[in-house]
């Protein structure tokens, strides 16, 4: 097919409403991705935003949410018009994804009671510890139920007014459809989900009710939580108000089918075709996390591991690190400024490419350097706050290659500690699929990640598309299920989305594996330095 014919085919799919739209609200970007009937991306748009530290709380305002949605959608529409000369008015399906966890409580009138508390906040220690002990199930600091229970423990005045609470994806979905629902994967990061029922765990709901009965009589958490839906379910339709929120120009028509809103972990699994047992995926962005689909439950509880689900409701072990690639971005910015100061303006992708390729020439163990990417606290290593650090011994070798290899190792360090706990449980992994912007420079982060996790790492052509593409695929799956033309999610992905996908697989290199093991031993010992920095600075 010629490029002209392909463009005409895509144009027809857009004008006839057969394209599918996905929107994901990430930590630093809100991205919109349009896919054709063959699931290939055909247009994209994005808007930048950043969290704020307000009164000690990491947050985003709802005005920023609305403005970012409109900005990303407007950029997508402009891209469609530039490429195909048309403006979309409707879609076959639409999906919303966002950062998991956090706390958005609303009163009966739909007013937000306290500023959005994101996954990045680590103020829920007492609540998370008590709930984990009560349930016999790891409840991380960032989970929504930990935030709610901490608010109850602290006797916050807003608690009696709560009529519902949800995640960021759940909030946006309700703004677009009026439906208080959540995909099972995102819901499993609010409150534990029973994989047998694909719904909130009944035993734990009862335990929570008894726990809070004395402090908050009458509080029924099951009445506050969103209704849980599996992938493929009809999660409502775009209302006139929702269409106006997304597209204030009035061009977008109401009535579009929406799939269940999902978290970025779930869309990452879809974007990498990692929803079947013995597969896993790693998503690298502002945070970094690994998801491994389990063949059976773990034998014991580990604070390093969350138990969540796939968008279809299957049990997943999750290693979630609060700190990911932000420090890499900061250093790339410094080197970009240096290039400009020398009179050589360079695009961000060119700067990243040069720095990442230099890392391949570094010593396998980083040459004696240590890097901590801790901009925020890191529960896996027991730190409530973070201080980015570069540490080296006097006999270390400070070169650009060693510096950049260490920076990339540092982005994977906490993840590797968590993955070793999973390995100790005897969990088998055939292949880890990776996605995120750090993998756009071919063969660098992917190779070093394979050394860090001790498993083959596959990167596909959609690695840079990430979760916005993943939720667009889930929207297409919901449309197919609604039309009676789809079976299970794993079969749909394998047979319709990834059947002809080209994958680049990096096997662990023996020298890299040995070098990273040496680095990680130093990294674990050096956490004492990181801890001291948080106390001193």
Structural class, please? alpha/beta
Largest sheet: 7 strands, mixed
Integer-rounded radius of gyration: 23 Å
What percentage of the residues does DSSP assign to strands (E)?
Answer: 15-25%
Provide the residue-averaged pLDDT: 94
Report how far apart the termini are: 60 Å
Strand order of the largest sheet: 16-17-15-14-20-21-22
Number of strands: 22
Low-confidence stretches: none
Helix content: 40-55%
Shape: globular
Number of helices: 17
InterPro entries: ATPase_NBD, FGGY_C, FGGY_Carb_Kinase, FGGY_N
Pfam family, one: FGGY_C
Protein name: Sugar (Pentulose or hexulose) kinase
GO molecular function: kinase activity
Keywords:
alpha/beta; 537 residues; single chain; globular; 7-stranded mixed beta sheet
Outline:
With 537 residues, this protein is α/β, with parallel strands linked by helices. The protein has helices at 3-15, 62-84, 125-135, 144-153, 168-177, 184-187, 202-212, 221-224, 240-246, 264-271, 326-341, 348-359, 400-424, 445-453, 467-482, 489-497, 510-536; strands at residues 20-25, 29-35, 41-48, 52-54, 57-59, 93-98, 104-106, 164-166, 181-183, 193-194, 199-200, 227-229, 262-263, 279-284, 288-293, 306-309, 315-321, 369-372, 389-392, 431-435, 457-460, 503-506. It has a domain at 327-414 and 509-536.
Describe the protein's architecture and organization.
The chain has helices spanning 3-15, 62-84, 125-135, 144-153, 168-177, 184-187, 202-212, 221-224, 240-246, 264-271, 326-341, 348-359, 400-424, 445-453, 467-482, 489-497, 510-536; strands at residues 20-25, 29-35, 41-48, 52-54, 57-59, 93-98, 104-106, 164-166, 181-183, 193-194, 199-200, 227-229, 262-263, 279-284, 288-293, 306-309, 315-321, 369-372, 389-392, 431-435, 457-460, 503-506. With 537 residues, the protein is α/β, with parallel strands linked by helices. The chain has a domain at 327-414 and 509-536. It has a seven-stranded mixed sheet, sandwiched between helices. Helix 11 (326-341) crosses helix 12 (348-359), helix 13 (400-424) packs parallel to helix 14 (445-453) and helix 14 packs across helix 17. The longest helix is centred in the C-terminal third of the chain and has 27 residues, at 510-536. The protein is globular, with a radius of gyration of 23 Å. The mean pLDDT is 94.
């Amino acid at each position: 097919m010629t490029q002209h014919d392909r463009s005409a085919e895509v144009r027809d799919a857009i004008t006839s409403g057969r394209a599918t739209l996905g929107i994901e609200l990430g930590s630093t970007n809100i991205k919109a991705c349009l896919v054709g009937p063959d699931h290939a991306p055909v247009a994209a748009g994005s808007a930048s935003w950043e969290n704020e530290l307000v009164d000690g709380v990491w947050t985003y305002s709802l005005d920023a949410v609305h403005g970012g949605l409109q900005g990303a959608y407007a950029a997508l529409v402009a891209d469609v018009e530039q490429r195909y000369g048309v403006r979309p008015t409707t879609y076959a399906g639409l999906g919303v994804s966002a950062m998991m966890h956090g706390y958005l409580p609303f009163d009966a009138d739909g007013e937000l009671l306290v500023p959005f508390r994101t996954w990045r906040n680590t103020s829920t220690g007492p609540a998370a510890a008590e709930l984990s002990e009560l349930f016999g199930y790891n409840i991380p600091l960032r989970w929504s139920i930990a935030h709610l229970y901490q608010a109850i423990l602290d006797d916050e005045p807003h608690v009696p007014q709560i009529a519902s609470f949800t995640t960021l994806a759940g909030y946006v979905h309700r703004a677009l459809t009026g439906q208080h629902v959540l995909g099972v994967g995102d819901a499993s990061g609010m409150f534990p989900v029973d994989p047998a029922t694909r719904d909130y765990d009944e035993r734990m709901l009862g335990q929570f009710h008894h726990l809070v009965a004395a402090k908050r009589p009458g509080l029924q958490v099951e009445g506050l939580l969103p209704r849980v839906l599996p992938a493929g379910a009809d999660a409502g339709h775009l209302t006139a108000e929702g269409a106006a929120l997304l597209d204030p120009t009035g061009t977008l028509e109401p009535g579009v089918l929406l799939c269940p809103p999902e978290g970025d972990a779930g869309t990452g699994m879809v974007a990498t075709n990692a929803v079947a047992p013995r597969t896993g995926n790693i998503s690298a962005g502002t945070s970094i996390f690994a998801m491994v689909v389990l063949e059976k439950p773990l034998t014991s509880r580990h604070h390093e591991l969350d138990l969540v689900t796939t968008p279809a409701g299957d049990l997943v072990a999750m290693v979630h690190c609060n700190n990911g690639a932000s420090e890499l971005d900061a250093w790339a910015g410094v080197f970009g400024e240096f290039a400009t100061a020398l009179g050589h303006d360079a695009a961000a992708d060119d700067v990243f490419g040069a720095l990442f390729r230099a890392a391949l020439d570094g010593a396998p163990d980083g040459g004696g350097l240590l890097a901590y990417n801790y901009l925020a606290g890191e529960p896996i290593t027991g730190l409530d706050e973070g201080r980015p650090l570069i540490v080296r011994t006097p006999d270390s070798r400070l070169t650009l290659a060693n510096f950049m290899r260490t920076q990339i190792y540092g982005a994977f360090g906490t993840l590797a500690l968590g993955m070793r706990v999973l390995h100790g449980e005897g969990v088998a992994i055939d292949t880890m699929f990776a996605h995120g912007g750090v993998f756009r420079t071919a063969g660098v982060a992917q190779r070093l990640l394979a050394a860090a996790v001790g498993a083959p790492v596959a990167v596909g052509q959609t690695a840079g598309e990430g979760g916005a593409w993943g939720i667009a695929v889930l929207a297409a799956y919901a449309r197919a299920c609604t039309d009676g033309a789809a079976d299970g999610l794993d079969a749909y992905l394998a047979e319709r989305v990834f059947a002809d996908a080209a994958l680049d697989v990096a096997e662990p290199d023996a020298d890299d594996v040995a070098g990273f093991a040496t680095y990680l031993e130093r990294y674990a010992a050096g956490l004492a330095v990181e801890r001291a920095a948080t106390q001193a600075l």
